[in-house]
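User: Can you predict the 3D structure for this chain?
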Amino acid sequence: MRAAVEQLKAYFAKERTSFDLPLDFSGVTSEFQREVYDQLLKVQHGHVTSYGQIAREIGKPDQARAVGQAVGANPIPILVPCHRVVASDGRLTGFSGGLKRKVSLLKLEGVDVDGASPSSKVHPEVIPLDL
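Assistant: Here is the predicted structure, written as structure tokens:
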């Protein structure tokens, strides 16, 4: 627990861009959720991805909505960076901690965001578009 607190402090102080902690989701998540969270852990600091892109990356291209539900059920936000997931057109959509917090986390990581509403977008567009 102490390591997590120290790493989170360093993250918020802009001294850390990734976490090195053992994460155990057994018993609290489904296999599908674990696949989504494993993919989220690959999204680098300062980058965003889309629900559809994650669905494609886990081999379930028609499951973008299910990915959204899994992202919304993330039991450890920030450590598993669900704030880095946006709609395919760059809109923020939602965040379990509220959009203002999502915007704050993205800005902390250097991602430009034009507001804190669901229709606000990240700039520049750094995600592959779902075409």
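The two ends are 42 Å apart (CA to CA). The mean pLDDT is 91.
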